[in-house]
Amino acid sequence: MTSTQTTTPRRHAYTGPDVPQLPEPSFAERVRTLATLTPVATLSTMSRKCPGYPFGSLMPYALDLEGRPLFLISNMAMHTQNLKVEPKASLFVGQIAEGDPLGAPRVTIVGDVEPVPASDLVSVREVYLARHEASRSWVDFNDFEFYRLQPLDIYYVGGFGVMGWVAVEDYSRALPDPLAEAAPGIIAHMNADHVPAMILLARTHLGYEATEAAMTAVDRLGFFLRLKTAEGMKGVRINFLREVMTAVDTRKVLVEMVRSAEAMS
C-alpha cells in the first residue's frame, strides 16, 4: 500500500533572488515525529465481553527503532485479556494543542499487538524504561509483560483538510523531525516577541495582509502561521530558505528572512 499524500507546488509573493522551495516533511515523517513526542495514547482492542465492539484504554508506550509501539501491560488488565483472544487493535495518538482540537495533528496506527519475543526483551525493556522511568517499580512483577504493535496501516490527520494513509514501509524508514524537541520553545518565542516580523513575512512571501499572526508549528523545512485577515482566519505555510537542524539554525534563517523582507518593504 502506498501513501496518498500529494505535493502541491507553492508559489510565494517573494520578489528577491530565486530560492528553490523546499518540500514539506512527508506524512510518514510527521507521523514518526508525533509518535515520538507523545508518551501516552489510546489503545483500542476488540472487546472479549462485547464481541465485535472496540474497547479503549489509556496506554503509555515507547517506540522501537522501526517505530513500532511498545507496551508494558498487566495480564489482569482488560485490554490484555482482549488481546490474548484477538490481537487486532489500533493506537490513536493525538497532539494536545491550544484552540480547536480538530485542527491538531493525530494519527491512528492499525495492526496486531502481540507479546514481545524473548530474543527482543532486553532491547525492548531498555527502550521502554528510558521513556517511562517510573515503570521500573513494576516492570519485574510476574503479571506484567511487554507487547508490541506491528503496524498494518497508518492514517494521519494533520489538521483541517490535511489527511491521508501512510505506508508502513515509509513510516518505518522515517526519522523524527530534528526540531521536534525545540519546536515549543521556538513557537513560544516567536509568538511572544516577533508578531510584527511574522506579519511581514506573510505579506512578503504569501501576499497576505494580516493584522495578527501566530506561529502554530515549525519543522526543519519551514513553519505554519495562523493569520487574521480581512477575509477571515487563514492557515498558511512558509518554507525556510534552507533546511535547519537546530534552534540556533532556525533563528539565523528567520533573521535572514526578516531582514530581506524589511529591505523590500
Annotation keywords:
3-stranded antiparallel β-sheet, 11 strands, 265 residues, 8-stranded antiparallel β-sheet, alpha+beta, Pnp Oxidase, Chain A
Short description:
The chain has two domains: 27-173, Pnp Oxidase, Chain A, CATH 2.30.110; 183-264, PNP-oxidase-like (Split barrel-like, Alpha-Beta Barrel), CATH 3.20.180.10. Helix content is 29%, strand content 32%. The chain is built from seven helices and eleven strands.
The CATH architecture classification of the largest domain is: Roll
Q: Rounded to an integer, what's the Rg over CA atoms? A: 21 Å
Helical content, roughly? 25-40%
Beta content: 25-35%
Shape: elongated
Count of extended strands: 11
Average pLDDT over all residues: 90
Helix tally?
7
| CATH topological fold name of the largest domain | Pnp Oxidase, Chain A
String of helices and strands? HEEEEHEEHEEHHHEEEH
| Structural class by helix and strand composition | alpha+beta
Number of domains: 2
**Poorly predicted tracts of residues:** 1-17
- CATH class of the largest domain reads Mainly Beta
What would you give as the CATH superfamily of the largest domain?
Answer: Electron Transport, Fmn-binding Protein, Chain A
Question: How widely separated are the two ends?
Answer: 48 Å
Outline the biggest β-sheet.
Answer: 8 strands, antiparallel
Describe the structure.
With 265 residues, this protein is α+β, with helices and mostly antiparallel strands. It has helices spanning 27-37, 78-85, 121-131, 168-173, 183-193, 195-206, 247-264, and strands at 40-46, 54-60, 62-63, 69-74, 88-94, 106-115, 144-159, 162-166, 210-219, 222-229, 232-239. Helix 6 crosses helix 7.
